[in-house]
Amino acid sequence: MKSTLPFIALPLLSIIMAAPFVSGQSPDTTSTIESLRADVRADRTKIITHVMQFSEKDATAFWPVYHQYEADVSKLNDQRVAIIREYAASLASLTDQQASSLTSRSFEFERQRVDLNKKYFKSFSKVLPGIVVAKFFQLQHRLNLLADVELAAHLPAVFQDQTQ
To answer: Contact at 8 Å (CB) between 146 and 12?
Structure first.
């Protein structure tokens, strides 16, 4: 990857929407979350464009499939947002049953994310060379890892002492 990637990726990480989830839920939280999610999608598009350096032919094939993929990812991420909101709202009084339910739903989210990637791997593979598809999913995986680490850094752990 080019050395400019970190400069493009930093804005992506700086606007991850964890902070609104762990703070109090104000009336405008939903609009804030949606605004931040739109910014993240725009940054991902910039990063993908920069890193992938598509030929004109590959770009023409890639973007329509990507936009479908992005819409499906956004729908799936709605589940993640709901899990995080519920976690943030119940953290101070989290019961064993709630913790188990949230953990189970998190595993289900991850399974669905993998299934969605497998589905779109097939779709991208129909219109793009294998190396291009592999490069995209490698990039997507790395961006997801960065986002997951940033998100984890902003969410308090279940085992943290809440009195601090």
So the answer is: yes
Q: What is the pLDDT of residues 112-136, one digit of tens each?
A: 999 999 999 999 999 999 999 999 9
> What confidence score (pLDDT) does residue 160 get?
55
* Minimum mean pLDDT range among 6-10, 33-37, 133-137: 6-10
Supply the DSSP symbol for 128.
Answer: S
